[in-house]
Amino acid sequence: MLYFTIAALVVILDQASKRIIWEIYRYSGGTDLIDGFLRITLSKNNGAVMGILGGSRIILLSVTIISIGALIYFAYRMRYAPVFKRICIGLILGGAFGNLIDRIATGEVIDFIDMGIGAYRWPTYNVADTAVSIGAVFLIVGFIKATDDLFESPRGKDPAAALKNSRSSDE
Fold first, then answer.
1. For the chain, how big is the Rg over CA atoms in Å?
2. Which of 15, 72, 123, 130 is a good FRET partner for 7, with 20 to 30 A between their CA atoms?
3. Catalytic annotation on 148?
4. Residue range 66-90: average pLDDT?
């Protein structure tokens, strides 16, 4: 259930932030927060990351729905994984749902976080994108550094033993 709790929190935060930012800045387009480094700049993206596949709504919806299905399956398979890995899956799942809601509702994703220095700007993004990125990076790090305490199973270092222990305790 941890996956879905984290995912629900990400969806709520993502959707609330988009609605609030949209209501405040829809006429002005945004504002400067930290001396040109961090801005709120409203934009709508009808593509994937960095506008890739722009205008391909059906393809993006299909890929997102398939990805969410795969994540739910993956979450089920990792139900005995360490808490930190389950949090990472929840972040990715919530981010995918957050952007899926926008794509279904309007065909576009609302982005508003604009970072960069001068003319060198990162593409604008939102809370859902941030959750997906953080979850993916930490999940990859977790798989690479499997000996780190954050990524160890709460029932021991051997995931197979943890699974066996949980099955025997269920009997």
1. 19
2. 123
3. no
4. 89
* Residue 116 pLDDT class (50, 70, 90 cuts): very high
Q: Name the catalytic one among 35, 111, 149, 158.
A: 111
Calpha distance 21→23 (Å, rounded): 5
Distance CA 163, CA 116 (A): 45
Task: Compute the half-sphere exposure of residue 62: CA atoms within 13 Å on the CB side of its CA.
Answer: 5
What does the DSSP assignment read for 75-132? HHHTTTS-HHHHHHHHHHHHHHHHHHHHHHHHSSEEEEEEEEETTEEPPPB-HHHHHH
Say which residue the tokens 């499997």 belong to: 146
Per-residue pLDDT band at 51 (split at 50, 70, 90): low
Exactly one of 129, 148, 149, 158 is catalytic; name it. 129
Across the chain, mean pLDDT equals 84
Q: Tell me, yes or no, if 111 is annotated catalytic.
A: yes
What is the pTM assigned to this prediction?
0.78
Q: How far apart are CA 4 and CA 18, in angstroms?
A: 21
Tokens of 52: 């890739």
